[in-house]
Predict the structure.
Amino acid sequence: MGIVFNQSYKNIIIIAFALLIGGVNTLYFYPVFLKEEYYGLVVFLLATSNLLQPLISFGGQHTIIKYFSSFNTKKAKDNFMSSIIFLPLITIIPITFLVVEFHDIIASFLSIENPIIESYVWVIFLVAFATSYFEVFYSWARVQLKSVFGNFLKEIFPRLAVLTLLALVYLNQITKENFIWWLTGLYYLRLMIMIFYSFSLYLPKFTFSLPKNTKSILIYSLYILLAGSAASILIDIDKFMIPQKQAISQTAFYAVAVFIATVVEIPGRAMFQIINPLVAKALNENNFNELRKLYSSSSINLLIVAGLIFLLINSSISPFYDLMIEKDYANGIWVVLMISTSKLILMSFGCGPAILATSKFYKITLPFSILMAFSVYYLNDILIDIYGINGAALSTLIVVLFFTGLKIIFIKYKLKISPYSINSLKVISIIIVMFFAFQNFKITDNSILSIIIDSILITIIYTTVIYFMDVSKPINKLIKNILYGKLRL
């Protein structure tokens, strides 16, 4: 777990810094400089491109993770990596043709409720193309067990780009209308940097020879394409559906709440960059002892760290919204609770998604993803009409809770391993008790002081209890290293 811990905490620092920049953008610059309409437009365009991204990438990034460690010779790896570069073209070429031929029809459909969308349809496809190939080359670096720089480009670069462009909007150097096109261009700059970095780590001898197991690779890629497309619906369908049912400004309110809640998954996003290739390697080598260790340790460690973040967010959410200039954003307070709960559930699953995606049972990801997609769409269609943006959040929570439970049962049945133990129940109990204990805890009416005091008390109490309950050796070691100043980058 040494390399996992080393790169995970570096990635946590990167993601935390990225979210700090994103927080400034999301909570202050976007609402003030772009206002609700254009902010909602940006959220809609990026969310819709994310829905399209798995289709365009043809599962290329996941295929690299699964198969790279299965090749034993440099020639075999070169053939494989050469073919992966062209894999997304299988879907990119026909999709481009369809967009050119049916642009006006697509634009009319997407802009029924909000005509502002019509002029930016091409942005959806251009950003999807750039992010698809970025993910392919990021996986190229990850299988070399080098995730930190790619994580910097994935998390910090786009947020710095947004910060810079918003500042230029404020200074009247670019218009709000051109902001979106400039942002699209910077996604392509990020892609070029990632390509050069990936080639510096591993430059294959490019050939037109296909790997011997091309058929199995294509079948896997197709399944992951379908599963990924369905799974992306769970992530972004709410931001797509809200503008179809509500004013586009509601999308901005929802996006801010989701952004806040998503902080809970920082440790998971950091750990998965490096642990997913290790899971694939353990499966390719039939090393089930290592797989069991990765599964259980990732679950308990992510539950502990994500649990602390969950408590910090939900104890301070009311005074936090009080600090915002636009008070209407506080409509998302229940969204924060429901989405952060769903993220905590996902973190407790540990590397379970990687096990499903890279094991011989990977085909099960498709029916799971399709059922999740239909479920969240159906629930959104009903609950958004009843509860607005809270209905969208509730839909996500219900689907995540139910299907994560099914996936845990499936892995337990097939591989005889589980992410949970008695220590998991202890941590969950601590989180629940502290959540309710701090709901009505209030020392001062000053919002900033309230956030600071609550955060300090929760951090001290939570880490102390976790340490003395000795539920995780790596977490206890981390706490000691922090206290004694031994943690090094």
